[in-house]
Amino acid sequence: MLYRLKDAGYEAYLVGGGVRDLLLGREPKDFDVATDAHPEQIKEVFRNCRLIGRRFRLAHVHFGREIIEVATFRANHSDEEEGGITEEGRIVRDNVYGTVEDDAVRRDFTVNALYYNIKDFSVVDYAGGVEDLEAGMLRLIGDPEVRYREDAVRMLRAVRFAAKLGFRIHPEAEAPIFDLGHLLTDIAAARLFEEVLKLFMGGCAVQTYELLCHYNLLQYLFPQTAEVLESDQHGLFHALILRAMENTDARIAAGKPVTPAFLYAVFMWMPMQRRAKELRREGMTEVQSICEAGGEVLSEQSRCVVFPKRFSLQTREIWQLQPRLKRTTGKGPLRLLGHPRFRAAYDFLLLRAEAGESHQELCDWWTEFQVENPDVVAQAASRAAPKKRPRRRSRKKSPDETPASGTGESK
Ligand code: ATP
Ligand code: MG
What we know:
Elements (H helix, E strand, L loop, with lengths): L1 H6 L4 E4 L1 H7 L8 E4 L3 H7 L3 E4 L5 E6 L2 E7 L1 E2 L20 E2 L2 H6 L8 E4 L4 E4 L3 H7 L1 E2 L5 H7 L2 H13 L2 E2 L1 H4 L2 H4 L8 H12 L4 H10 L3 H4 L1 H8 L5 H18 L6 H8 L1 H13 L4 H16 L7 H16 L7 H6 L4 H13 L5 H13 L1 H11 L27
Parallel strand pairs: 2-5, 10-11
Antiparallel strand pairs: 1-2, 1-8, 3-4, 4-5, 6-7, 8-9
Helix pairs in contact: 7-10, 7-11, 15-18, 16-17, 17-18, 18-20
The chain binds adenosine-5'-triphosphate and magnesium ion.
The site of magnesium ion has 5 residues, from loops.
């Protein structure tokens, strides 16, 4: 792609995580291309290209199920009044083309602002990114507080990259995080869901979770979870979450699927239980209370971080199957084994046992029961498998825009 753009007479760079990860000897998750070609010109170069975004147009170049994002260099607005920055300093409009230097200073961390130039195979470094890369340092370009106020998601990105790359957040970039977390409440709930997926399903959930707690940011993503954690005297809930994070990381490392439905089942478990207990005191049965409390806590959660229905229904099923898993006699167990959410509910039961919340003997019984009924297990697994969707890159550069959905589903 870079050669095609260059041969058509344009500047063409690989930029962002692609360059950073390659320089670190890691496999990049995706590739971003930056160019001086305007979107219509990009479209002329690539047949397999679609322009997306209304305010800031981007080109998506398709290669089978893979999409590479090609963006025209952007600049900051010269006129602040016209420039789409709110009184609080948040960027809401973002649509002026610029030079590669303009483009570099708009990026978040110095290590994310390295440009690989296809013309002479050089890495162009406008912000001191190479030095920071060698030092393992995440440094924001410009004044950290201003940059966080422009886009609070950068705080989450700092945490994510620190966890993923094992980098330190520069003291100047670190200090404001403790005070500015509340700015995340202004970020669109749909965009935060995309960030949650990247934070917890990127293979470093344990470190990410610990850093989010350290910087007091968890409360802006999972407020009810953070509240229960505060009064978690014996550390049971914390242990459950940590075990789940370890599990998720191990599954990702082994190439196994992970789903946000399970992640939410864990994070929202204790808040749900707390509410369910209240409802039982008011006379509901266990099953009714889990059903009702599940709906309530998840819809409350969705107010700050959107949680799409196709996942929340699964989360509620995982919970609703927990009391049913206690019964090991009669026809119930065989019927349960055929439930599309059985496997996830069983995994959740194992996790609860590991965290000291349910009985290991019950887990062992279900493990044995599955071995005895392989046909039912296989049928249920095929029913539970999600349909394949095309892989889409999510949008992330325009703070005010709702990102594309469709990422993060178990495949
Ligand atoms: P990875 O893809 O491995 O998660 P990445 O650095 O490529 O990491 P992306 O979200 O793919 O992250 O973004 C690509 C690049 O776009 C970043 O490297 C950065 O230069 C720029 N960028 C992304 N989000 C922001 C933001 N909120 N503010 C400023 N620049 C950003
Ligand atoms: Mg990337």
